[in-house]
């Protein structure tokens, strides 16, 4: 039986994950991992995590590599693997090994996704896996006089085919091989297939599982987030990363983000539960790459209603904010500004304008508990003050029970309900006894 502390811990943990569950539902994630991950004893755990993502409504495309499995087969035949500029040369014998390795690994993954034994994490789960000829390829050809033979490049992704399978709730499994209209098979790299698939599907996330953390070469510390511009600068700088292995991953992430994928994540697959930790905890455990900055402040949209409700629910329960129904929030959402961090709403505030009295009400100012003290509250206030000025408001007021000093320190003065606009006075809740504070808004001269 759980002790009361662990019960509380569990409930808190589950509630903390709920915004991420809402945020990820219905989104398309392409996840790639090397053949090393498949050979690892911890791989069944990763499969359970993928199954759970599928269960939570994530549209999931898995892309697996087969490099170590190909090398093992070549060794078995006494043949040395041949590479030129980091790219495998796939001759006839190597191609046989590629086909064998792709077939075997694919079957192993499908078998793991088919588990459903009682007492296992996948008990009662029925997952359909769709795999097939979704990737068209063309030969790399001859470069610098070297014929790469059956090593290929992605030519096209069968977007309709993959979307159809995802619409049915299937997990799509792609191998690092492709087929040409001439009926040939080509050996591809897993990250190339994953990047091309993520771009073609306009995926929300490209998740690249790596063999190690993406650490900064100068201080050895994990790089938590990068814009594509910052990532490109790192790629130009030799020694900026602790390992060369990360370079193709980072390049893939940059390319995907530049071509429309919302976010790319580099995650060390050796950490148990790595994908869950990255996707369902506040700051994750990997490196996030995005085209726009990780955190933005912007006017709210109807799609933000759920995120705002999740954010303010604990403050409403604590009596700090007045409860708002979903319907009311949907009606008022145009008055809101939000701070979005990696797809999550972590801050919000609203401005309601009373034209006749030339006054604005600052309402529903809230920051997620984990992000307080970073001047975000102040930035929301400044943003709405500027907006109020453009809407010709001359004074800004706020009704507050527990935060009056925060406002006093930012230029608000105590006032009374008589100073409120007529309509607001009528709806003032005397029982709540909120303090009224008003700030005059300076307008530029002239
Ligand atoms: C008030 C709030 C929006 C401030 O956001 P924030 O991003 O942390 O704000 P800033 O970083 O700009 O300011 C932080 C400062 O405000 C202080 N502060 C926070 N809450 C305060 C309160 N209720 N009363 C007085 N000061 C407060 C902090 O102690 C900190 O001061 P310090 O740096 O001197 O220690 C945030 O704390 C919050 O969401 N609170 C709960 C909701 C709320 O009270 N909303 C207002 C409803 S009217």
Automatic annotation (TrEMBL):
Recorded catalytic activity of this chain's protein: L-glutamate + acetyl-CoA = N-acetyl-L-glutamate + CoA + H(+)
What does UniProt give as GO cellular component? cytoplasm
User: Where is the protein found, in the record's own terms?
Assistant: Cytoplasm
Kindly list the biological process annotations in GO that this record carries. Answer: L-arginine biosynthetic process
The keyword Transmembrane appears for this protein: no
Q: Which Pfam families does the entry link to?
A: AA_kinase, Acetyltransf_7
What pathway does the UniProt record associate with this protein? Amino-acid biosynthesis; L-arginine biosynthesis; N(2)-acetyl-L-ornithine from L-glutamate: step 1/4
Q: What are the EC numbers?
A: 2.3.1.1
Q: Which HAMAP family match?
A: N_acetyl_glu_synth
Name the family. Answer: Belongs to the acetyltransferase family. ArgA subfamily.
User: What NCBIfam families does its record include?
Assistant: N-Ac-Glu-synth, PRK05279.1
Recorded protein name is Amino-acid acetyltransferase
Which species is this record about? Answer: Methylocaldum marinum
The gene it comes from is argA
